[in-house]
Amino acid sequence: MTAVAQIVSVQMPETWRRRFIRSLLYGGDVDRAAKARARVGLAILAFVVVYSVIAIRLVMFAMVSDGRAVHRVVGGDAVATARPDILDRNGEVLATDVRVPSLYAEPRRLIDVDEAVELLTADLPDLDATELRERLSSKRGFVWLKRDISPEQRREIYRQGLPGIGFLPENKRDYPNGPEVSHLIGHVNIDNQGIAGMEKWLDGHGLAALHMAGLATDRLQNPVQLAVDLRVQHALRDELVAARTKFKALAAAGVVLDVRTGEVIAMVSEPDYDPNNPREALDPSRINRLTTGVYEMGSTFKAFTIAMALDSGRFTLKSSFDAHGPMHVGRFLIHDFEPENRMLTIPEIFTYSSNIGAARTALAMGVDAHKAFLKKLGQLDRLRTELPESAEPIVPKHWGDLNTITIAFGHGLSVAPLQALMGVAALLNGGVLIPPTFLRRTPEEALAVGKRVIKPETSEMMRYLMRLNVEKGTARKADVPGYYIGGKTGTADKVINGHYSKSSVLTDFMAVLPADKPRYLLLVMLDDPKVLPETHGFKTSGWNAVPVGGAVVARIAPLLGVRPRMDLPDAEHLILASLKESR
Amino acid sequence: MILRVLNFAVIGMLVLAAAYVYRIKFDSTVQAERLAKIRSEVRRERDTIASLHAEWGRLDNPARIEALAKRFLPLKPIQPTQFDSLDQLPERPPQLVKPDSPDPIASMIETLEEPAATTGSIDATKPVTEPAPPPADESAAATDGLPAVKSGRLDR
Lengths: 583, 156
Known about the structure:
The complex is a heterodimer of chains A (583) and B (156). Chain A is an alpha+beta fold and 583 residues long. Chain A starts with a helix and ends with a helix. In chain A, strands 1, 2, 3, 4 and 5 form a five-stranded mixed sheet that branches. A five-stranded antiparallel sheet of chain A has the order 7-6-18-17-16, sandwiched between helices. Helix content of chain A is 39%, strand content 17%. Chain A has 19 helices and 18 strands. Chain A has helices spanning 2-11, 16-26, 32-63, 113-123, 129-137, 151-160, 182-185, 197-213, 230-246, 302-311, 346-352, 355-365, 367-376, 401-408, 417-428, 443-449, 456-471, 545-560, 571-582, and strands spanning 86-87, 93-105, 143-146, 165-174, 224-225, 251-258, 264-270, 295-296, 320-322, 327-329, 332-334, 343-345, 414-415, 432-433, 451-452, 486-496, 499-513, 520-527. Chain B has four helices and no strands. Chain B has 156 residues and is mainly alpha-helical. Classes of the chains: A alpha+beta (583), B mainly alpha (156).
C-alpha cells in the first residue's frame, strides 16, 4: 500500500492548490511517504487489537455456558434449606423433607396492588388483607406471602395470572410418625432450622455452617441414624398413654436404655405433641419430663445408697441395720411405709423399701462418702446429651446429716429422670458409667467413653437385689414369666409450693431385663396417679408404675430380641451362686 | 498463481472449520439442554421419592398397623410361652422319600382321579396318558408312616 501511495504521489503532478495546502499542513520539507507508512502501521495495530478482543470474547462466550446457567437469585437465600433425613435404628423414616410450593411476590413488578390483594384473599381466606396490602405496597424486591400452600391453591392463583406473584418450591420438614417420637427428634421452624430435640443438634453439628455457605440446598446429605427403635417407642408410648388415662395421671414418661451402650432405645414423655404442628410444643405441660424436668425419684435412690455400702467393702449382703421406727432426726420423724420395727439385712432394706434402713446405711457411710458417691455417679451435675434441653439437678447447698438421710431414700435431691437411669444402669451393667446417647453406639465405643464407678462384684450383688425385689419385694406385679425382670420401685411425695404434699405423689419403676445378664433398663414414671378401686386405696409405685412396667416389658422384649427363658432358678441360686463361684 | 491457490485453499479451510465449529457448538448446546432436562427430572424424581417415603412412613406407622391388625386380624401379642429355641425342636424324622423322586402322595391322588376323568362325555376308549405310579413300597411307607412329611420340605 505504501508503494501505491508513493507511485500516486510521484505520478500525479501536484497542482498549486495542493502544494499550498500541504505547505500549510506539514511545512515545506516533510517526507509524506514515511508519514503515511507510520499511519498505516498504526491502523493495522488498532485493527489487530479490535479483532483480537472480538476473538477472545467469542472464545469466552463459547467456553462459559450461556445465561441459562445463572441461577435465579431472587429470594434464593430465603428458601428453606434441605436437611438430612432422620432414620430410626431399623432405617424407618422419622423425619424427611418434602417439596411444597410457597407463594411470594415481587412488589416492584406488581401493577395493581388492590386487584392483587382482592384476588389473593379470595383464594387464601386465612391471609390478612391489611397486612397483605402493606407487604405488597412496600418497595422491596421480594416478600413471602404464604409458606406451604396446597397444590389446589397454587393452581387457582396461577390461573389468575397476576404479574409479580410467583411460587417457589420449598423444603418442608415432614414427620410421618406424628407425635410418636416428638420429644426425641424435636422440630423445626418455618425456615427449616432445628429449634428443639435432635433437629437442633443437627444444626449445631455442621448443618448450620452448610446453610450459611448455601450448600445445603439439595438432598444430597447422608441420613442420620438414631438409636431409637420406632417399634419399641410405639409400644412404650401406647402403654404409657393407656396408663395415664387409667390412673388419671398428670403425665407419664418412660425410657428404654441399653445398659451396655447407653443408647436410648425409646423415650416417651406423655403428654407430647405433634412435631408437624410445633405450636403444641409451647404448652408448658408438654415439656420433656425426662431431660427438662427434675424430680425427687423416691426409693429408686435406695439402689445408690445400698450400692455405695456394698461397694465400700465395709458392708456385705449379710450386714444388718436397725430399722426400729419412727426415726427421730432433729425436728423430723422418718417413717417406713410398711414398718418392720426390727433389724433388717441389706436385702431386706431393699425389698421392704425401708426408709429408716436406707437412712442408717447412708449415715454409717458418712455424709462425705455419700456425696462423693453420688457425684461419681453423675447425679449432682447437669447431664448433657445430644438433646439441647437439659436441667440442672437441685442439690442442697449445705449438705448435712439430714440431707444424707433423706437423699438416702430419694428425697431432697432432684435429678432429671434420665440422669437417675444412667446411674442405675451403671450399677447393673458391671459398674461402668456410660453417658446416654440418642445416636448409634457400639459397646466398644461405650466402653471408651464410660468410666468405672463400682466394682463388678457390687454390680452382681445389685442385680441380685433387683431380681429379689421382683420375686419377693415391692415389684412383684412386674414379674412377667420368662423374662427374669429385676426392678426397684420409687414413690416420692411431690413438692407443691415448697411443702411435701400429702395427697399427690410421683411414682416410678426401674426394671432391668434380664436381671442376670442385663441388656436393657426401663424407666416408667407416673406423675400424680390417682387411687383406683382395683388398687385398694394405694397409689404407691407397686400398684401403678410396676404393673405398667411389666406390661411394657412383655410387649417390648420380643421386639428387642430378648429370648424368654422358662423355669429359671430364683435369684438366690442363679445370680448369687455365680457371684460365689467367681470369688 | 500459487499464492492465489493458497488463498482459496485457506478460505475453503476457514469455511470448513467454521462449519465444523458451528456443528460442535450446536451439538453441545443440545447436550447441555438434555443435561439440564435430565437434572430437573432427577430432582423431581427425588422429590417424589421423598414424598413417597414420607407417605410410606405414615402408612407404616406402628400405631396405624396396630389399629388395622386389631380390626382385621385374629392375631394377639406374642406371649413368652410361645417362644422355643431351635435345640428344643424334635429330631428330624428319617427321610422316607428320596429328594428327586416324584411326590408319592400327589401321584397317588392322580391315580385315584383316573376313573373320574373317564366319566362324562369323554370317550372311554381314549388311551390314558397319566404318569406311571411310583414304586409301591415308597408310597406305602409314606402313607402309613408320616403322611405330612414330603420329601425335602423340612430343609432349611
